[in-house]
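Each record in this resource describes a single protein on a pair of labelled lines. An example record follows, reproduced without changes.
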Amino acid sequence: MGSPIFLLGCSSAGVGYQAKEESGVTVPSPEHLGPPKSLRILEVTAAPGSPAPAGPAGPRVRSAPTGRQDLEQAGTSLPEELFPRGTAWGQVCGAGLERWELPEGNLLCPGRRWRGGGGGFTSSALSLPSQSACGNRTMKIVGGSPAPERRWPWQVSLRIGYSHFCGGSLITSRWVLSAAHCILRYADYMVQLGDRMLDGSSEQALMVPVQKIIIHKDFEAASLTHDLALLRLAYSVNFSSYIQPVCLPGKSLTVKAGMLCWVTGWGQLSENGSSQMAVELQESQLRIIHFNQCNGMLQNKLSTSTNLVKMGSICGYSAQGKDACQGDSGGPLVCEYNETWIQVGVVSWGIGCGRQGYPGVYTEVGYHRDWIFRHLSLATCLDSATFLILSLCLVLSLHILGTS
């Protein structure tokens, strides 16, 4: 069994955050930051529009998208993330990052750091949060049963304005993982965290604008392969018992057929098109089924010889009719390993909702681990480089003014 990956606020050695209600990071208020600048989306290669049906009945996309944006976010902000190195922490592209066991560090950072040594591009006004390993949850026990409000603290709701349309999972203090097919032709995305109620009525609920979206470059709308997107929040969030990141799988972690895992979301409670979104966060336990068995079940039901489930996907099934549904897209499929919760899948597509003999199909997180990690590293280092360029321009301008 492989170790889970701890990113940007989790320790790769499993030593890190101890969850507290208030962490030590100072987070700017939305009023201070203002709205995110002209949103644009990276790596969109498929033509806009709804995913085409695959097979006679066609996979019903969980959120029934109507299109995707072809804009990308401009606007820059001060880098705020820190990367773990063993049990130590350092600034992005700071001293020593190029010696980490990261190809991104070797590639990006030697040309983007102060040659005089020092600690990278930022002045480190950011304090380290109180640290705990990802994939942990603190549940309040009431009458012998865990209360659901802290059960899945990484679950988030993706909003257009304030209307829920997809799920997602918090994987760092500033990044959310979701499905590519969730990205519609809008620019005012929001993410709600910290509340199991869809209306965000609790005191712990937090609404954060989305600043940047990265869609997998190989995403295909017709087959929903590589159905993955990363969303960067406008600012980092504080971790608490209500808001925690989920772990990502390590390279050697194997998700075995027969394992019981959980899918969560606020999607429709039934396949009926008139069904409303759930008011409270729903959870369903599913059994992981083998890739070939998943294809075989769908081929049998749809009377086709086509392999509808492609590499990079994982399947879950419940004989009791438990399943994800419309509005659950992008949400996490998580499994527990040694009391640590690891996200193994992202809700992608299925035939109907909870139909007998029809498994749900999820984008496999472990298969796309390198893509996720590469873009988190790249985005943060590029932000650092942008900040450096702006700083050098300012210094040069002041020098010119002083000598004129």
In short: The CA atoms of residues 265 and 328 lie 5 Å apart. The longest strand covers residues 340-350. Helices lie at 30-33, 103-108, 291-302, 369-403. Residues 3-132, 139-147, 385-401 have pLDDT under 50 and may be disordered.
